[in-house]
Amino acid sequence: MAWTRPSGRQADELRPVRFERRFTRFAAGSVLAHCGETQVLCTVTVQPGVPKFLEGSGQGWLTAEYRMLPSATPQRQAREFMKLSGRTQEIQRLIGRSLRAALDMKALGERTLTVDADVLQADAGTRTTAITGGYVALCDAIAYLLSTGELEASPLRHQIAAVSVGLLHGEAFLDLDYPEDVAAEIDFNVVMTEELALIELQGTAEEGSFSRTQLNQLLDIAETGIGELLKLQQQALRSS
Amino acid sequence: MAWTRPSGRQADELRPVRFERRFTRFAAGSVLAHCGETQVLCTVTVQPGVPKFLEGSGQGWLTAEYRMLPSATPQRQAREFMKLSGRTQEIQRLIGRSLRAALDMKALGERTLTVDADVLQADAGTRTTAITGGYVALCDAIAYLLSTGELEASPLRHQIAAVSVGLLHGEAFLDLDYPEDVAAEIDFNVVMTEELALIELQGTAEEGSFSRTQLNQLLDIAETGIGELLKLQQQALRSS
Amino acid sequence: MAWTRPSGRQADELRPVRFERRFTRFAAGSVLAHCGETQVLCTVTVQPGVPKFLEGSGQGWLTAEYRMLPSATPQRQAREFMKLSGRTQEIQRLIGRSLRAALDMKALGERTLTVDADVLQADAGTRTTAITGGYVALCDAIAYLLSTGELEASPLRHQIAAVSVGLLHGEAFLDLDYPEDVAAEIDFNVVMTEELALIELQGTAEEGSFSRTQLNQLLDIAETGIGELLKLQQQALRSS
Amino acid sequence: MAWTRPSGRQADELRPVRFERRFTRFAAGSVLAHCGETQVLCTVTVQPGVPKFLEGSGQGWLTAEYRMLPSATPQRQAREFMKLSGRTQEIQRLIGRSLRAALDMKALGERTLTVDADVLQADAGTRTTAITGGYVALCDAIAYLLSTGELEASPLRHQIAAVSVGLLHGEAFLDLDYPEDVAAEIDFNVVMTEELALIELQGTAEEGSFSRTQLNQLLDIAETGIGELLKLQQQALRSS
Amino acid sequence: MAWTRPSGRQADELRPVRFERRFTRFAAGSVLAHCGETQVLCTVTVQPGVPKFLEGSGQGWLTAEYRMLPSATPQRQAREFMKLSGRTQEIQRLIGRSLRAALDMKALGERTLTVDADVLQADAGTRTTAITGGYVALCDAIAYLLSTGELEASPLRHQIAAVSVGLLHGEAFLDLDYPEDVAAEIDFNVVMTEELALIELQGTAEEGSFSRTQLNQLLDIAETGIGELLKLQQQALRSS
Amino acid sequence: MAWTRPSGRQADELRPVRFERRFTRFAAGSVLAHCGETQVLCTVTVQPGVPKFLEGSGQGWLTAEYRMLPSATPQRQAREFMKLSGRTQEIQRLIGRSLRAALDMKALGERTLTVDADVLQADAGTRTTAITGGYVALCDAIAYLLSTGELEASPLRHQIAAVSVGLLHGEAFLDLDYPEDVAAEIDFNVVMTEELALIELQGTAEEGSFSRTQLNQLLDIAETGIGELLKLQQQALRSS
């Protein structure tokens, strides 16, 4: 390989991933998701009602908000105020779309789930960690609604996980950390279901371009990573 | 095919595409790009200097703004005010990234090109039309800078075009118009160079998910469409 | 004359004026109005309901929005955001008031017409071009409402046109272009009906002051110009 | 006359006008201007420097801000926040332009005068009262700058006063109060110099239209009113 | 005493205090409160209805807004726009809480009183002057509601007054003016009822800290001042 | 006692308090402070330079930002956007003032410390927990600056802790939790130094009023609580 990972990881090796469930008490689901040094607090809260365009449809909704705490990065970053950056809006739209794919909205009924992804520490991969951790919090929130009788049947229809992959010196690597993210020529975010079906695919050439062969290498490695994340989510959800 | 196109087009057939160059006079490049009923006015203006993070680097910059006129859609849409929607921000970031890939920023030098993409009429595909038409306006702006002696050599290093593709009833279709866009299960935007190398790939499952086989079908059809757009751009640029 | 017009026009001569009807398809009325190099896209859209202060009155309303595209001027201008400039607000209030004078609001009924005046190219006289072109788009919108049976009788009660006049070296000139607008001591906008009755009169001494004799000279020349504009509107509306 | 004034005033009679100079202590000029029940606190403050577009020109500048206190009207009005209404912006631009006409900006030198017109009580005519009272405060501010030696010669070159006139039942009336303002078909604001030369003329047909004959009647009556206001300003400025 | 007051006042001596009732005509209560050079226009307006959280409770509400006119201070201050400063928000919350303590909200019924405190001139003590003067305006507003029959019984249950006290060179002083306010180590605002019971106590060490002994000295002197203010309010309210 | 604490605590008993130091890695100081169920992440970051009003003074500055995560409360709360609530601004000003009292700004030199207090879980007492925990994070940040040689001597001059106290049924209680906070008639926040000297005292009668005797009871109990908090801070700082 032309690129040796600073962390010593293999090209297709994830960083250590961990989900601390019930990190806070008031949200229906609350998970502190760790992916290496990246830490995202994912909470799911439930509110009655749905946005205007769904009123009376009998369907539910899920929306996401994403923010970084100012101290999450080595240089303090000002809080976003007055208007969200384009980057933040893109990320929270991606999180929302991805986790909506987990749900049967008819079965959820006219209630709104809000996924708040607050990044406590950022070492790249915050959006994919938010999706993967957000799924765990979503399961806890659904379990809570079932336990209180608010829901009779689970609206969960897919397990969802996400990972970033990238090209460095023309080769594919899994789960980039910050120094790798900066060095990567191509940066991909991949969201998949429990069957490794694609939900979302976003790839950008920061420099140069990429071929369809390279695209396939990136997707192969993403499948490996997501396969592992799906298992780690299951393990976390089995533990009480 | 399970889906018959309302327009009678073939699955891999573009809508009629046309570039009206020099549509307005004050911008260095000004192109009214038509793609079927979609009309986007793409202008490129030149300003000295670069954003803070590039000052003193000797490199230039290109940035994009995207807006819809309120009367561009069948129902009047309010102008975006106070804050841009997430959709608008995503689109203008995509246009900017895609057209930056056309340029050698060192050769451009410390000046900023602004691509304004104002949608006069929207019938789906506005962001890809903005990129494809924006490339033509960019060529005109560079030609202008060369003619005035502001630039000695062209910083253009790649030709760029973009197209949307989507899955309808599980099959791949090129260049969706509005009724198709609404009906599509999967929606992709693809940006490529003159060699059909990938610059950007964004695919979202609005409903369901997609396999890697389907991804390949979508990319095949996108290559066909972009190949044609590259020729149409060349024709437009050859005409005086 | 102390001032020779750069364009060679007579003191009481309009620039070439042209109205491209049905410039876009989705608005009820859509006119690209040209006045010399000035180009304003005037669209009229129809929405049910009226502002709060008119609810239940049986009366309709007309409101206007005015913006310049960033590339409309030789130097790119930033889009107005967060707050509209005082100039923009003055202009859109003027357009709204002037075109409301064309209508019998009772006959319009409880619907709101929105006139969007988007300046594609600015060479002075944008607000008066927006009014004169907006009237043509308004006629098309009313014709559309009559053709669909939404309206049974036309609420149009006056034809409206507007022109700018100014004093240069103490003499009155019609329809100033940009270099003249900058040089003018006194700048007037005049809005009149088909009978040359005054609807709005706004004059500002940018430098010095003006006498009532000069005011009369300005109004004489404005009457000439508006007389001609009224004919050009009629011609445009007669052509299919 | 078809209209009998509720106040019993003659058609060409002003309301009682009074200027309380030095109403507050910290501004260079501070005048509480009364025109009937209308009360506007006009202050003039002086700051070094000028806006960017004048830097290095050796010229000074005057700018105006206009606001209503929430309790100035019979129904409390919310403070303008986030964005100023079009009405407020039009008014403060008018006040600024009118009072700039009083000054020789070269003689003022590179300093900025800010006229704050805060309406304590509103019974129509607030903008013209702000101009007429603002002129008195401006004289006090200039006198202060002369007394401290900041200025060696007065930059005042014109005396400025303003009045509103309107058509009611087709006839011209001077200085409308609130019930008249609401009933008027045509509403004019007129700003003139000590020689009754016109500085600004703004007339709007709220209903119907007006002829040039009526315009002349309105201007005749405005001259009468402004003539009187010019004398009242002089009297106020002579008193210590 | 280590500190000699620039004004020659005793340590426990108020500045001259005066309440001009009915300063403007349209508000139910309108008082121009003077405390030395500090002038605050306090108006109370009445609106039907209450904020959401009180709807249907049968209780009324009182809210306050506080602003400085730009010319209130020796250096002109920009108007607060887009967002209120933290200082302004703290002050208007304090005024609101303090004057709510004067009222039996059940007896007021579902209406909202708005206290606008607009500082015309600022020489320290503006927030306490706003409370003390606002109480007088509140009494006038209640009297008005009783006189019109809108209220049958007075909801006033406490008389409220406020004063500032501070430590200078370690000793307690009453009613600081601006030069004292700047020099004070400790700054207290004290709000009390007619029985000298405490409603609000806010003390901040700008420099150093303070002991409980000093706190008691400050409260002793505040009681003296508030005792006097309570009498002055009564006198003002007795005069017609 | 008329009030029995739901938690079974004594009137002068704190909730369990715990400081998790180095909770995140990128800030110079990072402490997750627990006070019962209340959890506040307090980070201190260091930036070169100071606000304008201190430039060139040789002095440093400390500022604070306070926010609640949306999921911190049983009902999800919208993020504050566009403008901060008055409550939030009051709190962050209080945190900033209180922690500035800990520092010798001359010894800090021209650098700015930012204390971010992000409430992960809110059960009353968030502002006092932010101050008490923020002090621990501040010590860690100063130790870091000493360890890197950025500072030669510690600018810490006071230890700072804060607690809330309140009156319930007329008696004083320490460290109110949420159900108590809602029920309290009087609510006090007290900030003190290592010598129990007062830095800040803020008391508000939500209902009724309070006597000076009650004030003294509240301060007695606050001294007890702060004495304990000072010891807990010391213990946390001694542990590595």
UniProtKB/TrEMBL annotation, chains A, B, C, D, E, F:
<keyword id="KW-0698">rRNA processing</keyword>
<comment type="similarity">
    <text>Belongs to the RNase PH family.</text>
</comment>
<dbReference type="GO" id="GO:0016075">
    <property type="term" value="P:rRNA catabolic process"/>
</dbReference>
<dbReference type="InterPro" id="IPR050080">
    <property type="entry name" value="RNase_PH"/>
</dbReference>
<dbReference type="InterPro" id="IPR036345">
    <property type="entry name" value="ExoRNase_PH_dom2_sf"/>
</dbReference>
<dbReference type="GO" id="GO:0009022">
    <property type="term" value="F:tRNA nucleotidyltransferase activity"/>
</dbReference>
<dbReference type="GO" id="GO:0008033">
    <property type="term" value="P:tRNA processing"/>
</dbReference>
<dbReference type="Pfam" id="PF03725">
    <property type="entry name" value="RNase_PH_C"/>
</dbReference>
<keyword id="KW-0820">tRNA-binding</keyword>
<protein>
    <recommendedName>
        <fullName>Ribonuclease PH</fullName>
        <ecNumber>2.7.7.56</ecNumber>
    </recommendedName>
</protein>
<dbReference type="InterPro" id="IPR020568">
    <property type="entry name" value="Ribosomal_Su5_D2-typ_SF"/>
</dbReference>
<dbReference type="InterPro" id="IPR001247">
    <property type="entry name" value="ExoRNase_PH_dom1"/>
</dbReference>
<feature type="binding site">
    <location>
        <begin position="125"/>
        <end position="127"/>
    </location>
    <ligand>
        <name>phosphate</name>
    </ligand>
</feature>
<feature type="domain" description="Exoribonuclease phosphorolytic">
    <location>
        <begin position="13"/>
        <end position="141"/>
    </location>
</feature>
<feature type="binding site">
    <location>
        <position position="87"/>
    </location>
    <ligand>
        <name>phosphate</name>
    </ligand>
</feature>
<dbReference type="GO" id="GO:0031125">
    <property type="term" value="P:rRNA 3'-end processing"/>
</dbReference>
<dbReference type="InterPro" id="IPR015847">
    <property type="entry name" value="ExoRNase_PH_dom2"/>
</dbReference>
<feature type="domain" description="Exoribonuclease phosphorolytic">
    <location>
        <begin position="158"/>
        <end position="224"/>
    </location>
</feature>
<dbReference type="GO" id="GO:0000175">
    <property type="term" value="F:3'-5'-RNA exonuclease activity"/>
</dbReference>
<comment type="function">
    <text>Phosphorolytic 3'-5' exoribonuclease that plays an important role in tRNA 3'-end maturation. Removes nucleotide residues following the 3'-CCA terminus of tRNAs; can also add nucleotides to the ends of RNA molecules by using nucleoside diphosphates as substrates, but this may not be physiologically important. Probably plays a role in initiation of 16S rRNA degradation (leading to ribosome degradation) during starvation.</text>
</comment>
<dbReference type="InterPro" id="IPR002381">
    <property type="entry name" value="RNase_PH_bac-type"/>
</dbReference>
<dbReference type="Pfam" id="PF01138">
    <property type="entry name" value="RNase_PH"/>
</dbReference>
<keyword id="KW-0808">Transferase</keyword>
<dbReference type="InterPro" id="IPR027408">
    <property type="entry name" value="PNPase/RNase_PH_dom_sf"/>
</dbReference>
<keyword id="KW-0694">RNA-binding</keyword>
<dbReference type="InterPro" id="IPR018336">
    <property type="entry name" value="RNase_PH_CS"/>
</dbReference>
<comment type="subunit">
    <text>Homohexameric ring arranged as a trimer of dimers.</text>
</comment>
<keyword id="KW-0819">tRNA processing</keyword>
<keyword id="KW-0548">Nucleotidyltransferase</keyword>
<dbReference type="GO" id="GO:0000049">
    <property type="term" value="F:tRNA binding"/>
</dbReference>
